[in-house]
Amino acid sequence: MSDFVLLATTGLALGALYFLAASGLSLIYGLMGVLNFAHGAFMMVGAYAGWLTMTDLPPSLSVGVRLLVAAVVAVALGAAVGVVVEVVLIRPLYRHHIQQVLVTVGLSLASVAAAQGIWGADPRPVEKPDWMSGTTSLLGARLPTDRFVYVVAALAVLAGLLALLRLTRLGLIIRAGVENRTMVQALGIDVQRTFTIVFAIGGAAAALAGILYAQYAGSVSPAQGGSLLIFAFIVVVIGGMGSIVGTAVAAVAVGLVQQLANYYAASGVGDLSVVLLLALVLLLRPTSLKGATA
User: Fold this and answer.
1) Cα–Cα distance for residue pair 66/58, rounded to 1 Å
2) Which family does the record assign (predicted)?
3) What is the model's pTM?
4) Which of 6, 48, 214, 289 is close enough to 246 for a disulfide, judged by CB 3.0 to 4.6 Å?
């Protein structure tokens, strides 16, 4: 029983990280039709921004305070990078989807190469607060405390995104744009500004995923964003493009399947099981788990 509780908690935590990585990706594609393969670069920016901020802050500050400041810096920088990428690279190519893919793939490869050139390809260890390194007793199992942090962060982002989509004018425009972007433009609404804001939101969520995944892994490396991006795409496809609720459900399913399969089958089977889950969903429900935006 304790083993199952530990596996389920770890699966939920991993699913929370997948949701943070996939939520912005889902919004960007749902509204703008952009397959942003540079989303992994946003996550890498968040991870390295957090690591550098924690390293540069005075050691007299506690690790927890430095991590909190680093998270704020990473999210702000991720949003800024998202805006720059949308304005400079994506905006001129909205009607050229193949070029979008080529540009975002190129940006992803270039960002990894740049990170390797500056900081090297080897993982760099990151500090973790003592309270996150500890354990919490639940249902007879000793669970790593940091798992709850990832779940709480994902729930906060989910609640924030749902509130944005359902309670604000911007959210109304986003939901309408996902359903029929041409009609929204015909009504004279500034969709271009909305595109930029959505890219900023996606960059911020990806950066948060990057810094939290660095805490989960205990290190930062140039390849982390790319590996996380693979699962983010799987989650988005299973959950439905543009659907935040569907993305959340899919992220939990992917995290749980991956962890349980790795433990009860064999190490490495978890990734295969995730691919099989993707194939099963596409065969049985080609429209994915949820088709609505929110």
Assistant:
1) 9
2) Belongs to the binding-protein-dependent transport system permease family. LivHM subfamily.
3) 0.89
4) 289
